[in-house]
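Continuing the batch. This is chain 6 of the set; chains 1 through 5 are on the previous pages. Same settings as before, nothing changed between runs. Recording input and output for traceability.
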Amino acid sequence: MNYYDKENSTRVTEKEHQLKLKNRRLLEITGVKEVDSFDNEEFLLETVMGYLIIRGQNLQLKNLDVTEGIVSIKGKIYEVSYVDEHSQEKAKGFFSKLFR
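Output for chain 6:
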């Protein structure tokens, strides 16, 4: 059993998480727990798989269904990335060394 199998077995009761990107202009996301912040250049979403950052230009919240955990974002999508606790610690360590 690898890491992803363990994760899936503990998340049986949680909703499925999917990303569907159409022509870099429409992003549909399922498994969203909460929209933490957003503006026309960046969205920060809490999903069942961790925090998700979407960056782009002229981003707009097209659809928000909190009961089903579905979010649709339209605009020019430049980046979609997950923020893991492990990568935050690495970044923090790097910047702390840089600014000593």
